[in-house]
Amino acid sequence: MATPLDYRDSMMPVDAAGATLVGRVHDPTTGPCVVAVRGSEVADLTATVPTVSDLLDADDALEIARSAPVERSWALSDLAESTLGKDRSRPRLLAPFDLQVIKAAGVTFARSMLERVIEENAKGNPARAGEIRRHLAEVIGGAIASVEPGSAEAARVKEVLTAEGLWSQYLEVGIGPDPEIFTKAPVLSPVGTGADIGVLSRSVWNNPEPEVVLGVSSEGIAVGATLGNDVNLRDFEGRSALLLTEAKDNNASCAIGPFIRLFDQSFGIDQVRNLDVTMRVEGPEGYVLEAVSSMREITRDPVDLVNHAYGRHHQYPDGFALFTGTMFAPTDDRDAPNQGFTHKRGDIVQISTPQLGALVNTVTASEEAPAWEFGIRDLMRNLASRGLLNSAREAAQTS
Q1: For residue 49, which of 55, 131, 136, 181 is within the disulfide window of CB 3.0 to 4.6 Å?
Q2: Is the whole model's pTM more than 0.85, yes or no?
């Protein structure tokens, strides 16, 4: 049986030497720290930028990450071992965002869009999914994947499907003029790589959702990218879209990491548009599932998604993280025929792409995952006790 430590060699991007990687470390002696990877070391930037929110808003974020003076650092290999080995007594990686709101775009890939339609029609019952999937294939086929959301052609498709009794709220946000943008998780609640990730114990039909996550500044500009797992309860949301929050926002149900790769001359939004994201699930009974999602198949451009989330209609003074959606919705039966895929406790989930490294988590019940106990007040009190809320950098900016 695999453990998260078995995935240690794939944690970093293949071109890590040329990448600008930032994130967060929890040090048991001081608390959360803003960090940057510098070769084989992870440098503590907290004296310069007390939060990742401050860093992503800085005009000179790349310079800070690469060359700001630091008083301490940790060996990257030691952090990888303690993080993936779940040793909470030693410094370890956290989810790389702190004060940012965690937003998500839903139904941005045609394949997963149709699976949402199937969930809705199945009323959360996996046994009915196969029959509905075959019927949709007969009526829609694969043509819907090429329809531009919000276009005149999309409007015509809507008319045809409505006449056939097949229109769905998921098709509305999938090919209609407005995407689904929702709040995935509270500030500071996501878990990082190596951590347990939670699925409600009452759920009998669920799956991981491997996604690219954008780091967006308070001005609505995407400045970096990382990986995320937007854990989904198909039975809950399938019964009613009004159960979206119960399906999406539970203890440890959002994983992000391992690092944010800042955009620079070698990696930017154009590279994000062409990423291939691989997911591997390795079960305790020897079950293995592998799949690849291509960002080239997204139906809405990532920048368009950012612009729907941010603008005159909505601002984020601390910035936000944006899950860009997934095309992954597993349909293969894991156990019984016509029951599809669902998680088992002990599943190891790896989400990876060569340019961003690998996010690895172990599935458990949300009720049994470590409780979320460190909130915004705790962070502010911790930074204040360390004299970091009035840093030298902030003083220089106001002088």
Answers
A1: 55
A2: yes
The per-residue pLDDT for 389 is: 87
Cα gap 196→362, rounded to integer Å: 5
| Partners of 10 in beta bridges | none
The answer to whether the CB of 340 falls within 8 A of the CB of 120 is no
Question: What does the DSSP assignment read for 12-75?
Answer: S-TTGGG--EEEEEEETTTEEEEEEEETTEEEE-TTT-SSHHHHHH-TTHHHHHHH---S-EEE
Beta-bridge partner residues of 106: 180
Tokens encoding 191 = 């878990």
Question: Is the torsion defined by CA of 332, 337, 343, 347 positive or negative?
Answer: negative
CATH superfamily of 4-106+179-398: Fumarylacetoacetase-like, C-terminal domain (3.90.850.10)
Domain range list for the chain = 4-106+179-398, 110-175
**104 beta partners:** 182, 323
Bridge partners of 296, per DSSP, are: none
Beta carbons within 10 angstroms of residue 174's beta carbon: 27
- Give the amino acid at 182: F
The position carrying tokens 């800070």 is 64
